[in-house]
Design brief:
The complex is a heteropentamer. By secondary structure, chain C is α/β, with parallel strands linked by helices. Chain C has nine helices and twelve strands. In chain C, the strands form two sheets. Chain C has an eight-stranded mixed beta sheet, with helices on both faces. In chain D, the strands form two sheets. Chain D has an eight-stranded mixed beta sheet, sandwiched between helices. Chain D has a four-stranded antiparallel beta sheet with strand order 2-1-4-5. The longest helix of chain D has 18 residues. The chains are: A mainly alpha, B mainly alpha, C alpha/beta, D alpha/beta, E alpha+beta. At the B-E interface, helix 13 of B face helix 12 and helix 14 of E.
């Protein structure tokens, strides 16, 4: 097991390194830099140029890269945001927590929706119930997330006022209190739900077809021949086997979430990584851009790794010792 | 051995051909009402959009008219005008055309790259596969949307072609992986082995024997990808990383809905595009599902 | 010069693992096999599942990489890659599974004509004519030429496979369990047919099967494999009437007798063989449970026994 | 044959599958008895309806229409609630499946899988008792290290071992009726012999009735007490095993016997012309085998063929057997092989 | 004096309350408004209650950065947060000239070229420590420190004697600054110009007792800036949700007096939801309201829309040369494509900015005439006649100047008969950027000029300024461009149009211009009327020379809930209504 994880990580290492070079290069190719926003007749252009020089922005890219990667590797220093005047690690720290909660709640919703629907749909396939659920998956597939999120914000946030329309927590609450927690949750529900409702359709469909597939497997017939009741057949045999690939998908869901958060965080003004990314791109705060992309790339890698590990834990056929 | 008359008289033109894959697919679609309607709708939209746009004067449509800003639908402007006084209907037609063009282009290019890549890796296996899969793994871990956004902000000359190329560069992996695993299976099947013993060169086996057997998978995947690609384009436009407004796409019209006034009060600008996207994706999906059923004998309806 | 001669053939597959996915061990699928076949005869290769029969057959036709050993076909060394003698077209193969061995997306004409297109330049018309002729030879109506494989029954499909294999008039056909997937009644059809064309075209068969009954029916000579090695080789009657190796005996005893009257007799026989197998196992197999090298006990019959004692 | 010990009686069983909008009978009007301590073999080519029959008895079809009666120890399984059926299957009646590779749940240990059938029919069994019983069973079916095997997953076992596990599941609750659907087809001969021995032992030890489905006539000869030959969904001949091998009557049975290579066999084997028709294309009228013996005059067949008892316990369908000959025998004699 | 000059990314602004009753247009019908209809000061409806809290909406797409100190911040959102708890030591009048009304008073000594400042005694930091002359000096020392990473260091500082030496590390102290006593600071200037007294002084002290131990390089990321920011303004920061919201409580010790409100909450409000937030009372007021949303919401009943003229103007610039980096000055090229002033004049005549303002901005932007906007009422000269939309006239000018269509393709060629393609660079961002750019192109096309959008698309903000030349590397592909300038509190345009200004993007210079700019900063210019005169001349001069031409001026709109009293748009300098006076008439906001 450990060997396996270590091996996977060894494979991931060059990937991450390559990713960092790619992202770094791309950031270098972006026009402008963080200081180009400072146009002000009262500010001495020479002072800006001096800052550029000091920050090494005028060095050739490979020197900048080596400087940067050395910092990352030796002290976990992702550089400094030009815009926020803070260590990137610190900004990302805040945003990452927000995105983490958003993702977590989204995942919970996703599975809360997908599992019952997928099971119902797969178990009673081709019935009216199944058709309703399949209908939902079609609609979900065809509705772009951002339209849905926008409309949901509009109706539930504004017209009904049930949910806050921006931010991650109400102002003035003390972290750690129950109100604070509730407020955060309240801010999360709408974005998470929009994302879950749209992205879950794939899981529903996948689960459905997985169940339909499993239903036809020989070992299900064996179970019936043992005299197991229908509910037992479903709960003990079909579900276990169909949920396995879903469990394995868990890690990949993370990758999928990254894309979703960009939209949802932008629309709901939720201060997470997705929003940070868009801002930083627009403001050419590229130490942040690099860090965000790199981090999320690593998250994808870890997601894939997680999937492999989960799969190997739950599936004895490929269990690694 | 004496050749009998049967062979002598064999006249190939008179032999009834067995139904080929295409006709099975066709039959399946004909049987599935929803898919049929979807297909007709798609064809109709495609022809209309490409047809009408031949007669439309793009310059005229995107011409700013200061005295016609935000006009509601009327007989002059069937779907009203936007904040530049530009005709929304015309933009919708051109936009649909552009979105479809991008969708098709990206789907075709990803298909081409993905299939070639996947087929090569899967068919040759071994070290080649190993190396190719490492490359693919690398692309897969890239956070797609972000990388594309970064690229979009770098590219100096932004056009349908360059946009499609960027999308393609980071979207071919799905199909490649699928085709590879299928090709890995196929090449172990006896028919591929048989071809080897018959002296057929490898590339011929790959393209002549294995490819037809993964073709249904390719068609299905590409169809579903088409829907996804149209969605992606509109998403990027929505985020503000789409085309300039004089190259409208469905996403451009949708992105106007980011303005709350437009979202609430000027439905004519974004709603038709939203509905069209919805219907397009739904129809493509329906057709895709029907194709999937057609290629999977177990699920076939007829 | 022997028609086909296999010398000390070894085929090992690597097992990968460890931190860097290195080769850590190997499966010795075939481990020192030698035999030879005379032209026009049928050589049966028997053994339980996983004993290396298929691997041997595939190595001869070039589908598996050979780890060591030599294969001579009409005096040409097939393992020598530098010599580009094209004898490949003289060796063809019939596959076990009539369903997967025909490309489902191709029409019969394309399937049967595939070898022709590779080795002979024929016009469309000639080709069609040739294919129809081949189909007729295997007992299928030439009208089938434009059908797809799924429109045929298993036996018919197997015959399409045979038509393809004989299209280039090969000298040696490797038949890997050609009837295992077929019903008894259809089996008969294919077996009969194989015998017929053997006579007609003076074919040589390497006939691979795990069904001793069928091998006995088809073969002139038989080799018995166990875990990648030969345990016994000889003329068909010798093997069946005078099995020497305990493993051979066990195989023979396991064949169900078609006469219900012999039930008891068979059962007792089987038990005694089983007892012998258990008792004298170590006389026949080395510490790793592998067979020893073959030793001649007559000029046509050899058995794997330990050197003297 | 002890007729009083009748365990299972099928009366005019008809199992139909829905294909598009019509039902097609895969098992058509089958009547059969199975007795205690008896092996009834059912033989026939692929697609003749053997499995469909077995599945009907076990109530394992989920979308088939089943008509007729399946009387098992006074209960008509064809018209019984699913919960009652569940109480019977796996308990008094059980089944061994053909494919050991797929018939076991890949995610459950051997112990769980065998334990499940024990638990289902005896809720009071303690966990420890259950484990003991599982180990005994594994031992009984000849698994060398039952304790270790308990913890293992199916993929860690060889085909022969898995088939033994499946048998252990089937015999766990000492069933009175055991249906074995081609239990050895997927196995090597040497293992086949062992498995068959095992089944035979069980019959004797448990006094059970066994339905053995196979297409291997050798297996039939070694195992069966009585044989039913199926063709295209119908039983065409039933006889004791000796009668069948010595004096088979129905053209199909005779053709089958003739197509197996055997010691006395001549150079060419007999070939049955044509192919087994698919379910949709089954002939529904007259003698279903007629199409495959075209050289026999049409008049030789009955219009609505029925089973005739031509000797005690020996039933043959249709009258065509009286006129049947192999074409290469030039029609001068109509005797079976022997 | 926050001189937030920037370019076009600046928020649009807007004005107030119910629609006009209009001068020339009847807005009821055509939805066109005028800045004249808005007041910058809230009408008080009723009596303020004791205490109460309000919510201030910071309209922004992005969270605020959180560099919460005047000495370090760089983005506009942050200053909105800072202004509630920190303020300038000097107050200004409506022309942004310093007055004696602030927390400090001053005395000018023209002879010595020095100013002596005295901080009032009751001016204390939030932690009770007095605000001292040391603190003020300390701010200068930090900003002048080579390690300083903020954007403040510039002319404001370099004009102080000894600052450059200090900045270069050649001196340990700033020779021109002298702490006389705890509350008195004297600054001597090397460069003593009239500009000093309108924005030329750095008026934000830095609490030395807090910052003194923090290395300069770490100050901007220190807790004292980010988590527990400190000031001496009317409110005290109580808690911060980074980027999202800030809560304040009143500073009972505020030097002008105890604030009326108990406190206030600042939250970031996305532009898309600002209307709803106002309607349902989630926010009482915002820093700036997106003007394009005004027409649909002009009738919102629970708020009053305040308005003020923004100090920015949008303009079209003509590239007349390039930047000579060696000599640090513009290098005008007499052969530039746009070198012919008649061509530039014709292009001005060809565009209808009045209509642009009416149609795109519902009258909340309007035709601009000169390069000093009416936000500086004393200096903006509205008597100057600038070209007004007249395509006929444009055609005539072009014909006369020799730009004729000789090839017959519908576009004019240059006087030598060569093809004339003018490349137009325009910036993305802002709601109407795209149609506006298209509109200008269309308008020029209408007079036969072939203008092409550079790269076929709008250029993103950063690359736009890079290419226009903010780093001195002008993109030669650009012939004309559209951009915007904010005019600082001081009207002196040298930083934008002087020959040594890198921001002189047109790369324009002329003797007349040089002279006028110099005169505006001369000693005589300490005389207000003289200075007015000079800049009036300059405005006129630029209308003739047209290195750039202004297109529109803008309004800022600030909706304020009806319950709020004593509120004044902060840009409306010199109003004498201060934040500590803001109150509410009831506990709950009015809703719509
Ligand atoms: N490509 C391969 N890679 C690794 N091992 C292989 C490969 N092909 C065959 N083997 C192994 O080689 C051994 C011999 O296999 P082979 O297929 O030759 O047996 P066989 O006698 O034909 O068996 P069967 O009767 O099941 O067809 C087996 O243990 C098998 O697992
Ligand atoms: N679920 C089903 N739906 C439709 N047709 C079926 C179904 N199950 C079986 N059949 C058809 O019924 C017929 C009898 O099938 P069955 O499986 O009983 O044959 P069998 O005699 O067991 O053959 P084999 O030896 O291959 O197992 C076949 O034609 C088969 O195609
Ligand atoms: Mg094999
Ligand atoms: Mg079966």
């Amino acid at each position: 097991m450990w060997k396996f994880i270590v091996r996977r990580l060894l494979i991931a290492l060059p990937q991450i390194l390559l990713l960092s070079v790619l992202v770094f290069l791309m950031a270098q190719m972006m026009p402008g830099d963080a200081l180009s926003g400072l146009i002000d007749p009262n500010i001495d252009p020479a002072a800006i140029e001096a800052q550029r020089e000091r920050l090494g922005l005028n060095d050739p890219w490979h020197i900048q890269y080596v400087d940067w990667i050395t910092g990352v590797v030796t002290e976990g220093d992702l550089g400094r945001s030009f815009r926020y005047k803070m260590d990137v690690t610190e900004i990302i720290g805040q945003r990452l927590v927000n995105t983490f909660w958003l993702s977590l709640v989204t995942l919970i919703f996703t599975y809360l929706i997908a599992i019952p629907l997928g099971i119902t749909s797969g178990r009673y396939n081709d019935t009216f119930r199944d058709q309703m659920i399949t209908g939902y998956t079609y609609v979900g597939f065809a509705t772009p997330l951002f339209i849905f999120a926008l409309v949901a914000l509009w109706i539930l946030g504004f017209q009904f006022g049930w949910f806050p329309t921006g931010g991650s927590v109400s102002p003035g609450l003390t972290p750690g209190t129950f109100e604070y927690f509730l407020s955060r949750l309240h801010h999360l529900i709408l974005p998470a739900l929009s994302m879950a409702l749209i992205t879950t359709v794939n899981t529903v469909q996948y689960l459905r077809s997985e169940i339909i597939d499993t239903k036809q497997k020989d070992f299900i017939i064996t179970a019936r021949a043992k005299g197991a009741s229908e509910s037992r057949v479903y709960n003990r045999h079909i579900l276990r086997n169909s949920l396995l690939p879903i469990a394995a998908f868990f890690g990949f869901e993370i990758t999928g979430l990254i894309g979703g958060t960009i939209f949802v965080e932008t629309i709901y003004s939720y201060p997470g990584m997705g929003q940070l990314f868009i801002e930083s791109i627009n403001l050419r705060d590229y130490s942040v851009v690099i860090a965000v992309v790199l981090l999320l790339g690593i998250a994808s890698i870890l997601g894939a790794l997680l999937s492999d590990i989960i799969l190997s834990l739950v599936d004895p056929r490929i269990r690694i010792k | 051995m004496e050749t009998t008359n049967a062979v002598e008289n064999l006249n190939i033109e008179n032999i009834n051909k067995s139904p080929s894959g295409v006709s099975i697919i066709w039959r399946e679609i004909m049987r599935d009402k929803l898919a049929l309607i979807s297909l007709v709708f798609l064809l109709l939209v495609t022809t209309l959009v490409y047809g009408i746009s031949l007669f439309l004067d793009l310059d005229q449509i995107v011409k700013i008219d200061l005295f016609a800003i935000h006009e509601p639908p009327s007989s002059d402007f069937w779907l009203g005008t936007d904040y530049g006084g530009r005709d929304v209907f015309g933009q919708l037609i051109i936009g649909t055309r552009n979105s479809l063009t991008i969708g098709f282009l990206v789907t075709l290019m990803t298909g081409l790259i993905g299939v070639t890549f996947g087929l090569t890796a899967g068919f040759f296996g071994g070290h080649i596969d190993n190396i190719m899969m490492r490359v693919l793994d690398f692309f897969i871990i890239l956070p797609f949307l972000m990388i594309v956004i970064v690229f979009v902000s770098i590219v100096p000359n932004y056009s349908i072609i360059s946009f499609s190329l960027i999308m393609t560069a980071f979207l071919w992996m799905g199909i490649a992986r699928l085709i590879r695993s299928k090709a890995l299976q196929e090449r172990e099947l006896d028919y591929a082995q048989a071809s080897k013993t018959l002296g057929t060169p490898r590339w011929k086996i790959m393209f002549g024997q294995v490819l037809p057997n993964v073709s249904s998978l390719i068609i299905v995947t590409m169809t579903l990808n088409l829907a996804a690609n149209i969605g992606l384009e509109s998403g990027l436009s929505f985020l503000g990383f789409g085309f300039p407004e004089e190259t409208p796409s469905l996403g451009t019209l949708l992105s106007y809905a980011r303005n709350p006034q437009t979202l609430e009060n000027r439905w004519w600008i974004w709603m038709p595009a939203a509905i069209l996207i919805f219907l397009l994706m739904l129809s493509v999906r329906n057709v895709g599902e029907a194709l999937k059923r057609a290629t999977d004998a177990r699920q076939r309806r007829g | 010069m022997e028609f086909l001669k296999v010398e000390d053939l070894k085929i090992h597959f690597p097992i990968r693992g460890g931190l860097l996915n290195r080769k850590i061990d190997s499966v010795r699928a075939v481990d020192g096999v030698s035999f030879s076949i005379e032209q026009g005869k049928t050589y049966g290769l028997v053994g339980e599942s996983g004993s290396g029969k298929t691997t041997t057959g595939r190595a001869i036709i070039g589908l598996n990489n050979i780890t060591s050993g030599k294969v001579f076909f009409e005096g040409n060394d097939l393992t020598d890659n530098s010599k580009k003698v094209d004898v490949r077209k003289d060796i063809q193969m019939i596959f076990q599974d009539p369903y997967s061995s025909l490309n489902p997306k191709k029409r019969v004409i394309d399937i049967v004509a595939e070898p022709l297109r590779n080795y002979e330049r024929l016009t469309k018309k000639e080709e069609r004519y040739k294919v129809a002729e081949l189909l007729e030879k295997v007992g299928l109506s030439p009208e089938s030429i434009l059908k797809y494989p799924h429109e045929f029954s298993g036996g018919q499909r197997q015959r399409i496979g045979i038509a393809r294999a004989i299209a280039l008039k090969p000298k040696l056909i490797i038949a890997d369990e050609p009837v295992s997937a077929l019903d008894v009644s259809v089996q008969a059809q294919v077996l009969n047919f194989m015998k017929d064309i053997q006579k007609e075209l003076n074919l040589t068969y390497l006939f691979i099967s795990h069904d001793l009954g069928i091998v006995k029916h088809m073969s002139d000579e038989i080799g018995i494999m166990y875990k990648g090695r030969y345990v016994e080789e000889g003329k068909t009657e010798e093997i069946f009437t005078n099995p020497q190796h305990i493993y051979t005996k066990r195989l023979v005893a396991a064949i169900p007798d078609i006469n219900p009257q012999n039930r008891e007799k068979q059962k007792i026989f089987r038990q005694s063989v089983q007892e012998e197998f258990e008792q004298s196992y170590h006389d026949y197999f080395d510490e790793e449970g592998l067979a020893y090298n073959l030793r001649n006990i007559s000029n046509s019959h050899s058995v794997a026994l330990p050197e003297k004692g | 044959m002890k007729l009083k010990n009748k365990l299972l009686e099928l009366k005019n069983l008809k199992t139909s599958f829905r294909i598009r909008d019509d039902y097609f009978a895969a098992v058509d009007d089958v009547s059969l008895d199975v007795h205690k301590n008896e092996v009834l073999a059912i033989v026939g080519e692929s697609g003749s309806g053997k499995s469909a029959l077995a599945f009907s008895i076990m109530g394992l079809h989920n979308r088939a229409k089943i008509e007729g009666n399946i009387v098992f120890k006074d209960k008509d399984l064809a018209n019984i609630s699913i919960s009652k059926l569940n109480a019977i299957r796996g308990n008094e009646m059980s089944m061994i499946f053909q494919d050991p590779l797929t018939a076991l749940n890949p995610l459950m240990t051997i112990e769980e899988q065998i334990g499940e059938v024990l638990q289902l029919h005896n809720r009071n069994l303690s966990k420890r008792k259950r484990r003991e019983r599982v180990i005994t069973l594994l031992d009984q079916v000849g698994i060398p290290r039952p304790k270790q095997t308990c913890e293992q997953f199916p993929h860690e076992l060889s085909g022969g071992m898995r088939q033994r596990v499946i048998i252990a599941i089937a015999i766990a609750n000492s069933p009175e009726l055991l249906i074995a659907d081609e239990p050895t087809t997927a196995l090597d001969v040497t293992i086949q012999a062992q498995i068959l021995d095992l089944i035979r032992d069980l019959k004797e030890k448990m006094n059970a009735g066994i339905i053995l489905i196979t297409h291997d006539l050798g297996v039939v000869a070694e195992m069966a007490d009585r044989v039913a030959v199926m063709y295209a969904g119908e039983i065409v001949e039933i006889a004791s095993v000796d009668t069948l091998f010595e004096n088979a009557r129905h053209p199909y049975t005779r053709s089958l016997l003739n197509s197996v290579p055997s010691d006395e066999q001549q150079d060419t084997l007999h070939v049955i012309q044509g192919i087994v028709p698919s379910l949709k294309n089954l002939p529904r009228h007259g003698c279903r085998f007629a199409a495959r013996i075209p050289w026999i005059d049409e008049s030789a067949h009955e219009e609505n063929p029925t089973l005739h008892e031509i000797a005690p316990g020996h039933f043959v369908r249709c009258t065509c057997h009286e006129h049947f000959y192999f074409p290469d025998e030039k029609g001068d004699e109509a005797h079976g092989i022997s | 004096s926050e001189d937030e000059d920037t370019q076009g990314e600046q928020n649009d602004q807007g004005q107030e309350e119910d629609t006009n009753g209009g001068d020339e247009d009847d807005a009821e019908d055509d939805g066109i408004y005028s800045i004249d209809d808005f007041s910058p000061v809230k009408t008080n409806e009723g009596e303020a209650i004791d205490g109460g809290t309000i919510t201030f909406g910071l309209v922004s797409d992005t969270p605020f950065e959180g560099t919460l100190n005047h000495n370090f911040y760089s983005g506009n959102p942050d200053v909105q947060v800072i202004d509630w708890f920190s303020e300038s030591l000097l107050a200004v009048d409506e022309n942004y000239a310093y007055t004696q009304e602030g927390a400090a008073t001053f005395e000018v000594n023209e002879e010595e070229q020095s100013i002596t400042f005295t901080i009032r005694d009751n001016v204390n930091w939030h932690d009770g420590e007095p605000v001292t002359a040391e603190d003020w000096l300390f701010a200068h020392e930090v900003i002048g420190d080579p390690d300083y990473d903020g954007p403040r260091y510039g002319q404001t500082f370099t004009s102080i004697e000894g600052m450059e030496e200090y900045h270069a590390g050649e001196a340990d102290t700033i020779s021109g600054m002298e702490v006389i006593d705890e509350k008195t600071l004297k600054i001597t200037y090397a460069n003593f110009t009239p500009s000093l007294l309108s924005s030329g002084i750095w008026t934000y002290p830095l609490a030395k007792h807090i910052f003194e131990d923090i290395p300069v390089a770490d100050m901007s990321s220190s807790d004292a800036v980010r988590r527990e920011p400190i000031g001496f303004g009317p409110f005290i920061v109580e808690s911060i949700v980074p980027g999202e919201s800030v809560t304040y409580v009143k500073n009972e010790d505020y030097w002008r007096g105890e604030p009326t409100l108990d406190g206030l909450t600042l939250i970031v409000v996305n532009e898309n939801v600002v209307v709803q937030s106002l309607q349902n009372g989630t926010v009482d007021l915002v820093n700036s309201f997106p003007t394009d949303q005004y027409p649909e919401n002009a009738d919102m009943s629970n708020v009053e829309f305040l308005g003020d003229i923004d100090n920015t103007y949008t303009y079209i610039g003509f590239k007349l040369g390039s930047w000579d980096a060696e000599n640090n000055r513009v290098d005008m090229d007499p052969d530039a494509k746009m070198a012919d002033v008649e061509l530039r004049r014709a292009m001005w005549y060809a565009v209808d900015n009045a209509t642009v303002g009416e149609r795109f901005y519902n009258g909340l932007r309007w035709n601009a005439t000169t390069l000093i906007p009416p936000s500086h009422p004393d200096f903006h000269d509205d008597t100057i006649e600038a070209p007004l939309y007249d395509p006929e006239r444009a055609n005539e000018i072009l014909d006369a100047a020799g730009y004729e269509d000789v090839t017959g393709d519908g576009f004019r060629e240059d006087p030598d008969g060569n093809e004339l393609v003018i490349n137009f660079a325009s910036m993305s961002g802002g709601d109407t950027a795209e149609p506006l750019a298209r509109y200008y192109i269309q308008s020029w096309e209408a007079v036969g000029l072939n203008v092409q959008l550079l790269d076929g698309r709008l250029i993103e903000f950063n690359s736009f300024y890079d290419r226009v030349g903010q780093r001195g590397e002008d993109d030669p592909a650009i012939d004309i461009y559209q951009a915007a300038w904010g005019v600082g509190s001081d009207v002196d345009p040298s930083g934008l149009y002087g020959p040594n200004a890198i921001f002189n993007f047109p790369r324009y210079e002329s003797e007349g211009n040089d002279e006028l700019l110099a005169r505006g900063l001369s000693e005589e210019a300490f005389d207000h009327a003289y200075r007015q005169e000079v800049y009036s001349e300059w405005q006129e001069f630029m209308v003739e020379e047209i290195p750039v031409f202004p297109t529109v001026y803008r309004a800022i709109l600030v909706p304020v809930n009806n319950r709020v009293v004593n509120y004044n748009i902060p840009t409306n300098a010199g109003s004498e209504i201060y934040r500590y006076q803001i109150g509410v008439t009831q506990e709950e906001p009015y809703t719509n």
